[in-house]
Amino acid sequence: xxxxxxxxxxxxxxxxxxxxxxxxxxxxxxxxxxxxxxxxxxxxxxxxxxxxxxxxxxxxxxxxxxxxxxxxxxxxxxxxxxxxxxxxxxxxxxxxxxxxxxxxxxxxxxxxxxxxxxxxxxxxxxxxxxxxxxxxxxxxxxxxxxxxxxxxxxxxxxxxxxxxxxxxxxxxxxxxxxxxxxxxxxxxxxxxxxxxxxxxxxxxxxxxxxxxxxxxxxxxxxxxxxxxxxxxxxxxxxxxxxxxxxxxxxxxxxxxxxxxxxxxxxxxxxxxxxxxxxxxxxxxxxxxxxxxxxxxxxxxxxxxxxxxxxxxxxxxxxxxxxxxxxxxxxxxxxxxxxxxxxxxxxxxxxxxxxxxxxxxxxxxxxxxxxxxxxxxxxxxxxxxxxxxx
Length: 389
Ligand code: PLP
Hints:
With 389 residues, this protein is an alpha/beta fold. It contains 14 helices and twelve strands. Helix content is 42%, strand content 13%. The strands form three sheets. The protein has a seven-stranded mixed beta sheet, with helices on both faces. The protein has a three-stranded antiparallel beta sheet with strand order 9-12-11. Strands 1-10 form a two-stranded parallel sheet. Helix 5 runs parallel beside helix 11 and helix 8 runs parallel beside helix 9. The longest helix has 24 residues, at 286-309. The relative contact order is 0.17. The mean pLDDT is 96. Bound molecules: pyridoxal-5'-phosphate (PLP).
């Protein structure tokens, strides 16, 4: 008999399992649960997009594509980025199609991190960032943001954690889990520090399509930032395509070439039928995106108002489909709140502490559920709160 743990990588042994899973597993074992825990659209991928993929199969497009992805797809991504991010990327050498934004983040980090390099992760953050930094051989440095400031990164706080080992920071606007969107002036403040300390930025813009109150500002559109930024995005959220596993990276040729090397050895290429679907999504999917966005916005307004009224205070999140209310009035920890709410009222939310220390005292609720489900969840939450405050 061998002892498997003796053979495992120390880095992998040191990774914490995602805190979100624990609650999903518990919720899945119960009946009648309303889940506000999942981070994905409740829409099915628009029909025309699915049809484009079916057609590609009918036509027999079942082989590998170019490592970087179908050139036609890279061309439509380039056109799209010009509109959304206000920057022009050469489809032949500055765009890479990946297996979701998840793989994009992984190759981006592996391409730039040397052992011992520090990468700043702004918390509360998407659960993968710190672990991906560790897997790339780097050291994740957590930088906490504050609920009172809508969890916005403050440039002077950023400067405090920069050392001579800092290689990069990971930005995410609109943010998972807080829904916070940074505007142009705020991004400019961050860019100043990035430039001053000669850092790189991985800008995770997966929720770019889902901003509700003002036009989206991409970090690469801030003066001087395009050359130092690896832009990560994808189709999962805005186009309701989580299961297709398709994302992309835009970056200057030398960064892209390095990431392409990793991608070609570890992945070969992204799934071919998904790439055909994505061409349709980007070429003709804008109306569907607009329709979904309008619906999220309506649900956000309803949900945020109701939470604030019942004493779970939260700022109005400008993007994504998450609300991150404070539960401090209940005197429960985030984990206690989530567990008791699930057991007593069968509503699943994610405890804020799984996204970093500054998430303690908060919960993440996704409002990508039907209006009826949201209303029922709110009723149950109200009942839960009344017993405690
Ligand atoms: N980045 C953020 C901030 C996310 O919230 C997610 C998914 O939840 C991802 C990346 C991964 O997206 P994908 O489905 O494209 O891998």
